[in-house]
Model the fold of this input.
Amino acid sequence: MFELYKLQYICFYMKVVLKIIAVAFLLGFVCMGKKVEVVTFGQLQEQAALKNNDTLYVVNFWATWCGPCVKEMPFFEESSKIFANEKVKIIYVCLNSFKELDGVERFVKAKKIQNEVFLLNESNPNSWIDKVDGGWSGAIPATVMYKGGESIFFKEGDFTQVQLDEAITNMNKTIITNIDQK
Amino acid sequence: MKKINTLFAAAALVLFVAFTEGGYKVGDKAADFKLKNVDNKMVAMADYKDAKGIILVFTCNHCPFAKKYESRIMDLDKKMKAKGFPVVAISPNDPTVEPDDSFENMQKRAKEKGYTFPYLMDETQNVAKEYGATKTPHVYVLEKQKDASYIVKYIGAIDDNCEDASAVKEKYVENAVASILAGKPITPDFTKAIGCGIKWKK
Done:
């Protein structure tokens, strides 16, 4: 009799534990920011620069250790809400070492970043900086905007919310004529 | 509307070009400066009577990229000083924006690490502006001329792999110095790398 009572008790206890685990798991998914994907420069270009459509791609280069970058990230998050009904997509390209993926993911989660984050895996920046913009010295933050497969805006340095919204508003008006009409 | 946008884009481009075209290009004459070293003495390029050139490095305390290059900058000085190209490091950041880069912290850092080269504070940020430095680290290899003036021979990164010194394929700065000494053209004489933007005075 005593043994049965003990078994029931254990079963009940285990059910509760399982429920807690399941809830925690679900909550984790909901609360978690976007997962960070490690990409090469070529793969990154496919995500924005080479997209031949009428969406405005706003690509922000940053790193967790870059003070002004981290400071302006909430502005980008806010802009993505302001332009939620427009064809505007914000993409973050993290320039931390690709070996720091875990740390970057933790950062993205802690800051509740909702837009897509890529971590660039390229060892020699001299090989790709000019492909983003010839005028970019390599200092971050830097932001480039693409529409219809063309670069239409570049800025080295940080934004205020007003400046960013203004730039997005202006660039979003750009009419691209060479989109594939397939 | 499209026309307006084109105009806007053109204006932005002109502004941008005007803004970024400042600073030296390879082949330009480099102006001398007089800046305070961490030992409180003033340092100028003219002080280097016997040098064949100078490896001028804009760097700083706080920037992780500068930190990753720190030991390589120290090695450069040890290796290149003997060849007549000593390192001169300049911290261009405004310490009110980045307290890690205060003069006291620069002194601390230089002492802790045992810098064998001057670590100067560009308090007015005029040297960084004149040279066109935008980030840390940002290197200028200068060759001394017969009239004791300096010509910019190389601008850019120290090498092609910030992350892993052992995986470096091209040592840009060392190659530039070797080419100058051998009287050969420098290739590449201009490179780009990711760095921390200089913290300008607000």
Summary: Confidence is low (pLDDT under 50) at residues 13-20 of chain B. The radius of gyration of chain B is 18 Å. The longest strand of chain B covers residues 138-144. DSSP finds five helices and ten strands in chain B.
